[in-house]
Amino acid sequence: MPNILTPVLMVTSRVTRISDSLIYSRKVLAIQPGKNRPILEVALHGGGGARTISRYALEALGRLDMDYSILKAIATRSRAEQLIRAEAVAKAVKDGKPKLRFPRERPDQIWPVLPKNRQFPIGVGTGMHHLRVLNQHILNRFQDLAEPLVARATTLTLPHRPTDPERVSKAEMDRRKAEREAGSDIPLRGKGTAFPEPASITAAVKAAGFTKLRLVCLWYRDETRLRMLTTLAKTYNLDNKGLDPRDGQEIDLYGGTITAVFHFMGDFLTHGSPSGRTKALKPADAALDASGGVLVGAWCETHIPTADDAPGLKPAELEDIDAKPQTKTILAGRDIASQYVLGKNAQGVIQPKAPDHPTEMALLDLYRSLGIIDDRIANALRPEPRHALYGPDRIAHVGFHIRQQNKRKGERTSPKIVVTATALVPPAKRGDVWQLRGWSSAVPRWQPYRSAQNQFHANQYPQEAGGKKSYRHRWDDIGAVIERALEDLVEELDGRPYVVTVDEDSARRIWDGLQNSKQSSHPGTGKNKYWLPGYSLQEDERPDAIIRVNIADDRVPPPVAYTRVLSTRDGEKEGETTNALYEIETDFGTPVWLLCNVPRNYDGGNSGRLGAKYTRWDAKRAVISENREDRRKSEMPEPWYTMTATEIFPIALNDRVSHEALAFATAQLCHQTMYWSGRARYPVALHAAIQMDEDHPQYRRTAQSADEEPDIDEQE
DNA sequence: TAATCCTCCGCGGGACGTAC
DNA sequence: GTACGTCCCGCGGAGGATTA
């Protein structure tokens, strides 16, 4: 936490699952003999099913005032398990695949930590109640040796989102209730939708300088074509029955300004080598033609390649024949935004549920890739009256995303650094549409988000120039690139002020001024070349403020509960969850804000808020019953959630700035995303920048583990 | 003295779960 | 399809210790 003088003790808890084998674990928890001694975490060494105690751990344990029972226990267990393994392997020479079973007794002194996150009879997460009990325990133990951070709720009222249920006045609600009693079936509160009004899509398309939007739907499985068609019909209020366009026939979705074309594209979309794909796209050329001011978006079918697609290939090689990155690159090269939807998975052809969430979310994300901004951003940013003077709704909100992609196993190239950015630019005239501009380190110039993303996707991740650099040198160079980007942006903005949002975790290695420990010092005192984004620019070109956002679970304190002071009479009420914005009292400088989030999984309709009232030790067993109402899943395998928080820390670079106004605006832009039904962890501009990176064809995370794993028998 | 080994640490990221 | 939460591994830089 910034601007706090005393050390901050952050307490949290986690569920660690215990493995039945030690020789495949990286870590063990060890119970020390004697009373009141902490549990030790001991790292193990070696690989390939032969892990044992590391030399360093040996020394550390030796130096501790303790007997050698832990070391002996680890060594004994490692030997015993390796023996079991050797026998299984020897047997496998005769019978084929080795089958490994380790004893499943309750561990004694040594508790091996489950090395991988895989299906397990116990789910993750501790639940809210557990955190509250822990909080009380800490308060009791520390008494007045430590004091909790003081956080006060702010007056921020969160924007009403299109996805929220309809807001209904009391009079209208009464009228509807009366009508329902009279037999009508109107809903008391209409359900919200994440889909924008067709009219506002058209407005955004026109504002971007196009005459119409054409969605080109490329498919190779009838079922997928039908799902796309159904979703379009639903969101544009068309009659689904008569809707059965021929291949290549352009159908009207909304007043001639939004249309769709379907094309069967078997050769283009199925897995295989990259050669011949551009040719295979030919039949759709007319539909993809953007001349005459048409904004084109491609909506494609895909599936994850398996051994069926290319018999004989190893899992790692399947990545090379995946059509998705190949086709995405081709479409991006033609300045066409693309979005994919899975036609089948391991279970076979996907049978959509109602509503068909995957297809709907895919279509929404295509709007995002096209850079369409409707009025939801302007609605969300409406400031409190006292902030109107500074006016966060009249400034540009810029987000910079920085990521290093490390080398994966078997890769030879050096780590790559990716920087993407977006700028949410206010209209020159109030009431006009906001614009989204994009920038990337691969194509370092500001353009409409759509073009910036397409060009970024058409290019390989930039390789590091100038030979091998030191850590410091590399990040200073990235800082310089970003300063130039901001300089360019200032010209585009033509005098409108702007703020820059970055994630603390990934950005503090470039900018000293973001670090907690530097909050009381001055520019030029750190090791880094740059103090804050834009700080090296001329004074009148600098951003108004840098907004530091942090979501790291080990750096942002977890909220446990809140107290509401009742206004009507003296008294307080304890609340369990909150999604409000809180201001943290600091010892010097400005305050810092915490935006509390309730995970949707915890709050969602089916979860039943596991862990709200008791801890995992009281988890309920499964109930098997003929009676449907009595049936219940076991609670233990489910995930148990707790509240999370987003830290928002505005650092002003001039004295016009209202810190609180910027904290409010940031919270509002987390609450209202471009095209998502809930909250996002990052505000719109930063989120859109991260999305650009994650949709890149080279952003893949299908790394193969070389580590040998025991075959765990399916049982229970 | 330079090269190599070893471990810590920061942080990227994979896997799995739920929600809409 | 995307989003987030949880919890673990493991890469690669930094820097000390060891070896050629």
TrEMBL record:
Domain (pPIWI-RE RNaseH): residue spans on this chain: 397-698
Comp. bias intervals (Basic and acidic residues): 161-183
InterPro entries for this protein: RNaseH_pPIWI_RE
Feature: compositional bias, Acidic residues: 706-716
Pfam families according to UniProt: RNaseH_pPIWI_RE (PF13032)
Region entry Disordered, spans: 159-193, 695-716
Protein name: pPIWI-RE RNaseH domain-containing protein
